[in-house]
Each structure stands twice: as structure tokens, then as C-alpha cells.
Write a structure and sequence with these properties.
The structure is a single chain. By secondary structure, the protein is of the alpha/beta class. 45% of the residues lie in helices and 14% in strands. α6 links the parallel β3 and β4. The longest helix is centred in the C-terminal third of the chain and has 22 residues.
Length: 245
């Protein structure tokens, strides 16, 4: 089998595993998001390294929920020093300093994304959110996380402390296609599966809200002719609350 086809097949198999194992968890996560939005709370989203892209994927997105608040910490992202971001995500206590800058309450929830689920910042982010009474949706790779030791002082991993935890069905190390000539795996899957899982959570939340008589606020594509008119109403309402807007 060609390696390109193998990668696509890997993604297809992981999607099938989601259908077999994750649908109840998706609905549980959707219920948390729906309850947050119906209570006029915000859905915060956080990830380190490449996982920060999941926060961006949900934010200001065509077809995306309006009340998404991404926590985008430069020191934990790749554009401002990739090696540094790896070192920073292992620091104990840093997450509390980050979350203190946001006006989170028990009405809000947070999505914490970490493929490994082992580093200190993500564990501390969950703990800090729980102290505020927030529900936490975790997104991680259970195969990888269960095979590695925690780097948090407590020995805890993300999948052990989230209120609802979604499994992206990835393999150990995330990269899914073995190339014998270089003795390495290439082609990670966590971004593709992570984005899909989070969009299914959003869909579940929308369905629940509509079923309870609530109309969710959703962005249009800005590149549709009517997009600006639709989005301007949302932006006028939330621009002063969601700083990244």
C-alpha cells in the first residue's frame, strides 16, 4: 500500500473508531457547551503547541459558535519560539497565571486540548478551571497518554481529571505512517481528528439548544455576500467581551 493511501486509511479508521466509541462522550460534551451557552457563559478553549490550533479552529469560524473564547498564550505557541513553547508547557503553576487574566466564572466551561495529556500546563489549567467551578472538556490521545508518565508533580494526566474526555484515537507518538528508510513515523493525525471531534461537539450543543427552545448564535462565512451583515450583529455584541475579536 502506498504511504499516502495508508495515511488516508488511518484517518478513516480513526473516524470509524470515533463512531464506535465516542458518540456518547460527544453528546456529554455537547450538553456542557449547550448549558454554558444557555446560561450566557463563554466556552473557553486552550491548547499548547500544535494543540492551540484547536482553540483557533473553533474561534470566529464559518459556522462556528459565537461565544467561543480562545486562550492563545504566545509563550505556548510555535510562532514565538517553538523550542521555548515545549519547555514552557512543562512548567508547574503557569496555567493559573494565564487563567487569572480572564474573567471566568462557574457559568463558563473550558475545552483543554493536549495530545499527550501529560504536561503540567494542561493539568494545571484543568485544576484552575475546576477551582472556579467551570466544567472541563478534555481532548487527548488515550493510547499515547496511557503509555507515558505524567510530567505534573501530582502524577495526573488530562484524561483522569476532565469532566468529559474525548479520545482522538491517535497512535503512540501521533505520527501514523512508518517510513523504514528513515526509521521514523510521519503524518500526525491529532489535528484532523481533533477538529472533527470539536465540530461534532458544537453540532451536538446546537441540537440540544434548539430542542430546548434556544437559538444559538453562529457566525457565517465572511466570504458569503450576506456574511458581513450576519457577523456584524454578533461582533457588535461581543467585541468588548471577547478580546481576540
Amino acid at each position: 500500500m502506498r504511504k499516502t493511501l495508508q495515511y488516508i486509511t488511518n484517518i478513516q479508521n480513526q473516524i470509524n473508531h470515533v463512531l464506535e466509541t465516542q458518540m456518547d462522550r460527544i453528546d456529554e460534551a455537547g450538553a456542557i457547551v449547550a448549558e454554558t451557552l444557555m446560561s450566557n457563559g463563554f466556552v473557553y478553549a486552550f491548547g499548547t503547541g500544535h494543540s492551540h490550533m484547536m482553540a483557533e479552529e473553533l474561534f470566529y469560524r464559518a459556522g462556528g459558535l459565537a461565544r467561543i473564547y480562545p486562550i492563545l498564550e504566545d509563550a505556548l505557541m510555535l510562532h514565538n519560539g517553538a523550542i521555548k513553547s515545549t519547555e514552557m508547557e512543562r512548567l508547574d503553576g503557569y496555567a493559573e497565571l494565564i487563567l487569572d487574566r480572564y474573567e471566568c466564572t462557574e457559568k463558563d466551561c473550558i475545552i483543554v486540548v493536549s495530545n499527550s495529556g501529560r504536561n503540567a500546563v494542561n493539568i494545571d489549567m484543568v485544576k484552575a478551571a475546576h477551582k472556579l467551578g467551570m466544567k472541563v472538556i478534555g481532548l487527548t490521545n488515550l493510547t499515547h497518554s496511557k503509555a507515558q508518565e505524567s510530567r505534573h508533580v501530582s502524577g495526573t494526566k488530562l484524561y483522569q481529571i476532565g469532566d468529559v474526555v474525548l479520545d482522538n484515537q491517535g497512535c503512540l507518538g501521533d505520527a501514523s505512517v512508518y517510513i523504514p528508510e528513515i526509521d521514523r513515523n510521519i503524518a500526525a493525525t491529532s489535528t484532523s481528528l481533533g477538529a472533527m471531534l470539536l465540530h461534532t461537539v458544537a453540532i451536538s450543543a446546537v441540537e440540544l439548544m434548539i430542542g430546548k427552545g434556544h437559538i444559538p448564535e453562529v457566525f457565517s462565512s465572511a466570504n458569503l455576500d450576506e456574511g458581513d451583515e450576519i457577523n456584524d450583529k454578533i461582533l457588535t455584541k461581543y467585541r468588548s467581551f471577547i478580546k481576540p475579536l
